[in-house]
Amino acid sequence: MDIVMTVVLPMLMAYSLIGESFHEIIGTLMFVLFILHHILNRKWYGSIFKGKYNARRSFQTLLDVLLTIFMVAQPISGILLSKHLYTFIKVQGISAAVREIHMCLAYWGFVLLCIHAGTHLMAQFKSLKEKKKAVFCSLAAIGTAISAYGIYAFIKRQFPDYMLRKIAFVFFDYSEPRFLFFLDYLAIMILFISVGCLVVTGLTYLDRKRMMRKGGKAK
After folding, report:
1. Beta-carbon-side half-sphere exposure of residue 174 (alpha carbons within 13 Å)
2. Total number of domains constituting the chain
3. Domain ranges, residue 59
4. For 55, phi and psi rounded to 5 degrees?
């Protein structure tokens, strides 16, 4: 399910390049997978108010709450704009405003989803580092190189402008080969997955240092 969501995410960002009808279909699929993901992880809701919060848990909880809000608002705004699957839902006079909100949510949701993935992949990377250090180092080097290009692609694809609503419409270069578009978005995905990994690593280190200081004082 997570693999399918990962594949669908950059396709959703292509919008006009894949066709509006297909965009609505995979957008619906993404929302269904998101709901299933939450059903499978429903115990998380019950644990929110239990236990102590350190820096890492606070960050991940805030990230998950924000992502949930974005992932609910995104399909709702998409349904209001629908020209194919949900034409039976008509709300007059709000299309321009909703289109801007939907676009802004799309870019924020893309970034937050990638960071979220990175925070949960850190455990697998840590295990890989312990078992196969050479493989881990190779992947880390490749990931760093791709992330460096991802910064360029992030600016090139005008993510900051779309996220801050400085541009009202997404501009696509229809003469550009599709694979170049998806390569750029893949690089941006890897960039923010790496950001998620680094943030979790840093917060885990700070929490460990804080616990050690408390232990020292107690003694």
Report:
1. 5
2. 1
3. 2-43+50-218
4. -65, -45
pTM score:
0.89
Q: Which amino acid is at 34?
A: F
- Please name the residues in contact with 111: beta carbons below 8 A apart, sequence gap of 6 or more: 159, 163, 192
Q: Tell me if residue 108 falls in helix, strand or coil.
A: helix
Contact 151, 191 (CB under 8 A): yes
Read off the pLDDT of residues 138-176 as tens digits, 9 standing for 90 and up: 999 999 999 999 999 999 999 999 999 888 788 888 888
192/34 Cα distance (integer angstroms): 19
- Residue 184 corresponds to which tokens in the numbers above? 């750029």
Q: What is the pLDDT of residues 44-66, one digit of tens each?
A: 888 888 888 999 999 999 999 99
In whole angstroms, give the CA distance from residue 12 to residue 85. 16
